[in-house]
C-alpha cells in the first residue's frame, strides 16, 4: 500500500457500499418476479423502478462528491468507472423486469431462473466486496469468482438462445424473450466490469 501524506475523501467507500446494497435489492426483486403471477408483476416492476431511481441517486451522489473533492481515495477515472458500472447493473435489471410486464410475458423460458440466480450471487459478492475497498484486502477471490460467474452466465445465455430458436415459439415471442435474456446477460457483463475495475484499483494501490 502506498504511503500518503495527504488526507483522502473516505465517503466514497460508504457510497459504493450503498450502491451495491441497492443492487442486492434489485436482484431480490428479479427473483420475486420470477415466481410471481402475471397479475403481481406490475407491482414488482414499480418497486424495481423505485430501486433503480435510488441507484441513480447513489450514482449522482458519487459523481457530485468526485467533482467536489480535491483528494480522492483512488484514481478519479476508476471512481467514475466503478460508479457507472454499478449503475449499469441496476439499469439492466430494471429494464428486464419492465419488459416482462410491457410484453405481457406469460411464461419465461426455462433457464432464465439460472440467469437470475447467477445475478443474485454476483450481487451478494459485490456487496460484500465494496467495504473491502477501504483496505484493499480480501478482494482477489471476489473478482475471480465474479469472472467465473460471468462465464457461467455466458453458457446459460447460449443455451437459452438455442432453446428460443428450437421452433417452439412463434417469431414475435422469440423477439420478446430474446430481448429479455439478452438484457440479463448484459447485467452479468456489467458485474464483470465492476469486478475488473476493482481489480484495476487494487493493482494500482498495491
From TrEMBL:
Pfam families: PhoU_div
Family: Belongs to the UPF0111 family.
PANTHER family reported for this sequence: UPF0111 PROTEIN YKAA
Protein name: DUF47 domain-containing protein
Amino acid at each position: 500500500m502506498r504511503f500518503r501524506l495527504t488526507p483522502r475523501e473516505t465517503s466514497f467507500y460508504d457510497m459504493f457500499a450503498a450502491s451495491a446494497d441497492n443492487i442486492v435489492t434489485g436482484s431480490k426483486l428479479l427473483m420475486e418476479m420470477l415466481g410471481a403471477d402475471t397479475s403481481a408483476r406490475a407491482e414488482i416492476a414499480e418497486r424495481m423502478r423505485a430501486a433503480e431511481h435510488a441507484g441513480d441517486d447513489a450514482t449522482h451522489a458519487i459523481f457530485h462528491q468526485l467533482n467536489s473533492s480535491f483528494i480522492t481515495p483512488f484514481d478519479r477515472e476508476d471512481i467514475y468507472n466503478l460508479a457507472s458500472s454499478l449503475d449499469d447493473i441496476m439499469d439492466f435489471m430494471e429494464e428486464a423486469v419492465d419488459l416482462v410486464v410491457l410484453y405481457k410475458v406469460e411464461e419465461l423460458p426455462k433457464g432464465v431462473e439460472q440467469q437470475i440466480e447467477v445475478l443474485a450471487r454476483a450481487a451478494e459478492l459485490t456487496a460484500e466486496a465494496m467495504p473491502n475497498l477501504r483496505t484493499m484486502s480480501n478482494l482477489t477471490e471476489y473478482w475471480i469468482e465474479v469472472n467465473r460467474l460471468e462465464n457461467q452466465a455466458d453458457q446459460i445465455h447460449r443455451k437459452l438462445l438455442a432453446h428460443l430458436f428450437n421452433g417452439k415459439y412463434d417469431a414475435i415471442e422469440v423477439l420478446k424473450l430474446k430481448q429479455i435474456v439478452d438484457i440479463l446477460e448484459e447485467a452479468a457483463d456489467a458485474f464483470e466490469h465492476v469486478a475488473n475495475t476493482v481489480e484495476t484499483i487494487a493493482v494500482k494501490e498495491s
